[in-house]
Sequence to fold (166 residues):
Amino acid sequence: MYFEDILRAVRNAGFNRIFVLNGHDGNVGPARGAISKVADETPPAAILFASWWETLPQGDMRQIALFRQSNGGHGHGGPLETSAVAAFRPEWVHLDKAKDLPPPPNLSSTVPYYLEKPSAPDWPGYSGHVREASAEKGKQIVQIAVARLTELIQAWLSNPNVPGSW
Fold:
């Protein structure tokens, strides 16, 4: 309902095309539901949603080889995400206080998926070889993500009259 309220307010301010950049996996489901509802009730609204980490698929990250993990550093609070935070706020990252954990399993390199499970009571909130994170790697990650998001948005904006969803 919170996402719906925000989208309606933006829409009521006169914006017909809205881009939502997501930074947290827990927002995906609620945001998609809210986007569908608000876009449907307020035509001709078009709302584009993207999660920043999805601009960095596992295969691409393995090719870039910033991290040793078979999944390219992905995982909640893993080296990919921690590096991205370090690119913006290095003082928030304290790798000396973290220990490397097993990386999450690489369930698929080509099929997007969503897995929900309860967290273990002693889980520290991150996964993988987090000590591989660095601000330098984060700057590379952010640069790639920004370029890919820019490409997505430009393609979207340059085709305003194309009907249907893509």
